[in-house]
Design brief:
CATH class: Mainly Alpha
Number of domains: 1
CATH architecture: Up-down Bundle
Structural class: alpha+beta
Distance between the termini: 34 Å
Radius of gyration: 37 Å
Number of strands: 8
CATH superfamily: Outer membrane efflux proteins (OEP)
CATH topology: Outer membrane efflux proteins (OEP)
Number of helices: 10
Largest sheet: 4 strands, antiparallel
Length: 440
């Protein structure tokens, strides 16, 4: 039976190696390496950056409408005139015109420029939110992979313990000390544990693929989380202080606020449709040909001041005002929704860190107690006051305690990062601090 257990482990490692070999390997081994790869290759962040640049281009377009406009035109043609009493006459026409115009007053264009600047500022904040979200996504994917590796090691150790128990039960049965039911029960636990090992192995492959989804390549190896985690509570130790900080600095909330500003300016732009506009223009023209052979080629200069007073547009202007006001209300509702969500996220993240400290300590004690219990149960089995079921249950309890301990440790680290993201302060330096908790 020991040979069978070894064979299973060999096959498991071979299957895992084959699954990892199917992905393009990377040299990243710690959290900062993965972060740098993600920062350069993550398509979500790249899309946010492109959107930000496009919004700034729209602001440039809005500003251009208020700047001087110049154009040059040239016309080449031929005219013919013929009558019944004279032969046909014709002439070449070649005209060149240079025109310059400048908006003197247009409240609508000015409001549109302000709206475009507000939208650009909103997109800058959105990009910063995407960058912080990438920090958390990288950390989450990385620690999910670490947790999957820890859980695989735990269930593999659990399977090995059951395999050892099968072997001991078989030996005791052959010696007449155990019944066949004890052997069968041990084998059933081992078979179930083997199924859990297979599932854990696939979970690790999936977790590594999640890292590759962000970075474009699968990490060749991962660090492990140190046992001596600094279980420090958040500073300041006040949930409301973190909520207030999040409402001040969270970039997603700032983006929603700038969206309201842009909507306000668009309302002003729509209302400006009722206002007059004033523009100045200058045209310089020089015809080099004239009809019927007149080639005097005079230079013509024209200065124009154009006042446009809107009188009636069939109700379209008021409809645009109404539409802009509804869009502004939608932006305000979005801001309030975002504000409430960020306040809740900050409270939840703070509670997760505080609770996580207790969970790490409790599950660590549970592992120590389960190890002691298993050792005592095995001794009791040898002297006859514990049953095979007691031993198998003790092994299972130890595996569950180890899994809970691993989950608590990894969640505690992620909870700290989630709190910093909610507060709008998550940076690469925070990932560097977490990276010091890893060992290769």
């Amino acid at each position: 039976m020991r040979d069978v257990g070894r064979l299973w482990r060999v096959l498991a490692l071979a299957a895992l190696a084959g699954a990892l070999a199917a992905c393009r390997p990377a040299q990243a081994e710690d959290l900062l390496d993965v972060w740098r790869l993600a920062r350069a290759a993550d398509p979500v962040l790249a899309a946010a950056d492109a959107q930000r640049a496009g919004t700034h281009d729209l602001a440039d377009q809005a500003r251009a409408a208020l700047l001087p406009q110049a154009s040059a035109t040239a016309t080449i043609g031929r005219e013919r005139d013929s009558g019944a009493s004279r032969p046909a006459l014709g002439a070449h026409l070649t005209d060149a015109t240079l025109g310059v115009s400048q908006v003197v007053f247009d409240a609508g264009l000015w409001s549109q420029l302000q709206a475009a600047h507000a939208s650009a500022d909103a997109q800058d904040a959105t990009f910063e939110a995407a960058r912080q979200a990438l920090c958390l996504r990288v950390a989450t994917a990385y620690f999910d992979a670490l947790l999957a590796a820890d859980l695989l090691a735990s269930v593999q150790a659990n399977e090995d313990a059951f395999a050892q128990q099968v072997e001991q039960s078989q030996q005791r049965y052959e010696a007449g000390l155990d019944a066949q039911v004890d052997v069968d029960q041990s084998r059933s636990y081992q078979a179930l544990a083997h199924g859990n090992t297979m599932a854990a192995r696939q979970a690790l492959v999936d977790a590594l693929a999640a890292v590759a989804e962000i970075t474009g390549s699968t990490p060749g190896s991962l660090g492990t989380l140190r046992d001596d985690l600094p279980l420090r509570p958040p500073q300041p130790p006040d949930a409301q202080a973190w909520v207030d900080a999040a409402l001040r600095a969270n970039p997603a909330l700032a983006a929603a606020g700038k969206g309201v500003d842009a909507a306000d300016r668009l309302v002003d732009a729509a209302r400006a449709g009722h206002l007059p506009t004033l523009a100045a223009g200058l045209a310089l023209a020089r015809p080099t040909g004239a009809p019927y052979g007149d080639a005097s080629g005079r230079l013509a200069n024209t200065a124009v001041l154009t006042l446009n007073v809107p009188l009636f547009a069939g109700g379209a202007t008021q409809a645009r005002v109404s539409q802009a006001e509804h869009q502004r209300q939608s932006a305000r509702d979005t801001l309030e929704t975002q504000r409430r969500a960020i306040a809740r996220a900050a409270k939840a993240a703070y509670g997760s860190v505080v609770t996580g400290i207790g969970q790490v300590r409790a599950t660590r004690e549970a592992v120590a107690a389960a190890q002691a219990s298993l050792a005592a149960t095995r001794v009791g089995r040898e002297v006859g006051n514990r049953s095979m079921t007691d031993v198998l249950n003790a092994i299972q309890t130890l595996a569950q305690a180890q899994a809970a301990y691993a989950q608590a440790r990894h969640q505690f680290i992620l909870g700290r990062l989630q709190l910093q993201q909610a507060a709008g302060t998550l940076t690469e330096a925070d990932l560097a601090d977490v990276n010091t908790l890893l060992q290769r």
